[in-house]
Structure formats: C-alpha cells, structure tokens
Amino acid sequence: MRKYLLFIIMILSLSIAFAANEIVIGVTQPLTGNYAMGGQLGMRGIEMAYEEVPTVLGRPIKLVTLDNKSDKIEAANVVTRLIEQFKVSAILGTYSSALGIPGAEIANKNKVVYIAPSNTNPLVTKDKPFAFRVCFIDPFQGTVMAKFAVQNLKAKTAAVIYDVSNDYSVGLAYYFRDAFVKLTGDSKAVKVYIAYQGGDQDFTAQLTAIKKANPDVIFVPAGIVGDAALIAKQARELGLKQPLLGGDTWDLPQLIEIGGSAVEGAYYSTMFDAKAALSDKTKPFVEKYRKKYNEDPGYLPALAYDAYMVLIDAIKRAGSDDPEKIRRALLTTDFVGVSGRIRFDQNRDAIKDAVIKTIKNGKFEFVTVIKGD
Predict the structure, then answer these.
(1) Three-state DSSP class for residue 26
(2) Taking 60 as the threshold, does the pLDDT of residue 74 lie above it?
(3) Are 25 and 82 in contact (CB under 8 A)?
(4) Domain residues of the chain, as ranges?
(5) pLDDT tens across 75-107, in order?
(6) DSSP for 106-123?
(7) What one-character-per-residue DSSP string does 43-102 give?
(8) Kind of pairing, strands 244-246 and 23-29?
(9) Which of 116-120, 147-151, 254-258, 273-277 has the least mean pLDDT?
(10) Apex CA 245: angle with CA 220 and CA 227, to 5°?
C-alpha cells in the first residue's frame, strides 16, 4: 500500500512539474455569433500549426481557446481571462478588427504580446507596443482596390456603401475613397458615400441613391460577408450592373452561397490564394489542408497558421516565454510563412503583398498579386 501511495505521489509530482513547465498561449476567436465562420476557419490554421509544433524550447505548449462570441465587450473580457486566469505568455487574436481592437487594448495594458492574424484596421496596433499583426492594413488594402478600379477597370467614378457599426468597414471605406479621389484627381469622383447598419436586411434606400448617381464601380467593404452578399443581390435586382468591389471579408464561402449569380464578376482584395506562389511553404500547406478538410484553404486559416508560427519563431529567438522578451524578438522578425514573407514596420504591421481575386462560374478565382513594398 505504501509503495502504491509513493507511486501515486510521484506521478502527481511529475504531472505538476510538467504542467508548470508548459508554455501557455491564449487564443481568442468568435466561435459563435455573426463572425463565427471566420473564427472557425482561423482555428483550423492554428490547430494545424499546433499539430506540427506542439513544443518549443523543449517545453510543451498549452493552447487555451476562448470564444469571444462575436461581441466587442466579450472580446475584451476573454483577453482579461486569458491573462489573469490562465497566465498566458502571448495571445493569438481574433477574426474581425471590431473584436481585435478591444482585445489588443487589454493585452497591451497588461504587457502581454497580442498577434492578430487578419485584423486590418490600423487601430489594432496603433500606440500598442505589445500588439502585432501578420496581415496588411486597410490604408494599403483600400489603396490597392482603388488602384485596381482605376487602372484595371478604367473607373472614373465610384460609390461606397459601408457598415457604420463596424470599425473595419468604416476604415476601409475611408481609405478607398481617399485613394480613389487622389488617383482620379477628381474631388467628386466618389459620387455616393453612404452607410448602413450591420445586420440590416433591406438596402433599397442606399442602392437607389447609388443607381441615381450611376457610378462606374461600387465598393462594398462589408464587415459581415452576409451583408455583402445581400447588397449584391439587391443591387442586381434593382438593375445595377456595375462591377462590385470588396475587401478581405468577401473571401468566405458564404459570399457565393448567399450571393449566387449576383456576385459573379466581383473583385476583392485578400491576403492568400492556394494558386498564388507566395512562398515555398504555400504548396505544402495547401496540400496538407486539402487532405485534412477536402477543400482549398482561404486566407483565414493561412494567416492564423502563420501567426502561430511567427510567435513560435519569436519564442525560440527570445529563448524565453517572457512577454517582454517575446515582444523584442518579434520586432526583428523576418519570417517566410505560407502567406509569404513577414516583417514588421515601425507600427508592428506586416509588410505583405495583396492578392486580387474574382468570382467566376460560382468559384473564387485568382487574378493577380500586388506587391506591398
């Protein structure tokens, strides 16, 4: 009996020592609510990366994933829990800039590293030394789409319809308008700049105003992909035939599932495509993803995968799980990921290329890559 008790005590002691030796990484994603599809796709990338690299510095990695429920307040709350309850060394952030901004704010105040895979709004990292991102930002994305409209589609006028309740949508709309006006040299080139409330079902009033103005292109930086699909359908029903343009939130299957033929011929910017040779790591990742999920990966799993790997690379170079040491290592990152080369500028935003895609015959199609530097 005594030997048995000693054995149990030894096992428990080893378990406690093993747990104490873990490096704890937090993950916050919208696994329920309006942004759930984005969060679930992001989790695929993180889980794939974790399966490949479950240890670092000779220590096991423990992932703690909390659902922020697609809610801004909950996005801040779960980051607080990850820091205070689970004592994480770093946090891999959420889908949606609207959720990333409050989450990054809390992490930064607590001096815990926060890496956003796909948040493009500048406010996610602005004035937050502990916040980083592995994607491009909206000033670049807005400029890319304005250039594509003017140079490739020969557009001289545009309309913008955006979600006033969504930080991502508000920001991207602004940057597109600013770039389009500069590129055309016409202060009145954006003929309609009109808002809607996220989750609305009827966009008739806004689209009627756009129809009356008759612009060459219509930019729809929707925060929720379902909104973009409904806007496209209602635009076509009203007889609007202009090319529709969007941002990276369009790069989800829901766009085609809901929008159907209405989104045919639309163009949008994103950060990844299975057919774009962004690095020598792209093809192996795509093949592994196809085998696991029986479909091509979009930008969300690719960027989430890269965010995890960039964090692990920084921990290795820091030789520590101390947040401040990880932060300093991240500043000197020069990492080749599945979505391309990743370096950080003075604002800790990734210098990345943009991918332009279109919808053809009910499928997403790669168009071109526009360089980020």
Answers:
(1) strand
(2) yes
(3) no
(4) 2-136+280-353, 139-270
(5) 999 999 999 999 999 999 999 999 999 999 999
(6) HHHHTT-EEEESS---GG
(7) HHHHHHHHHH--EETTEEEEEEEEE-TT-HHHHHHHHHHHHHTT--SEEE--SSHHHHHH
(8) unpaired
(9) 273-277
(10) 35
DSSP one-letter string for 287-350: HHHHHHHSS---HHHHHHHHHHHHHHHHHHHHTS--HHHHHHHHHT-EEEETTEEEEB-TTS-B
Question: What amino acid is encoded at 265 in this protein?
Answer: G
Q: Do domains 2-136+280-353 and 139-270 have the same CATH topology?
A: yes
For residue 155 the two structure tokens come to 């557009």
CA angle at residue 338 from 223 to 323, to 5 degrees?
A: 80
pLDDT beyond 70 at 159: yes
Nearest of 218, 305, 293 to residue 263 by alpha carbon: 218
Q: What is the pLDDT of residues 285-299, one digit of tens each?
A: 999 999 999 999 999
β-sheet with 59-67: strand ranges across? 55-56, 59-67, 23-29, 90-92, 113-116, 131-133
Q: 2-136+280-353, which class in CATH?
A: alpha beta
CATH no. of 139-270:
3.40.50.2300
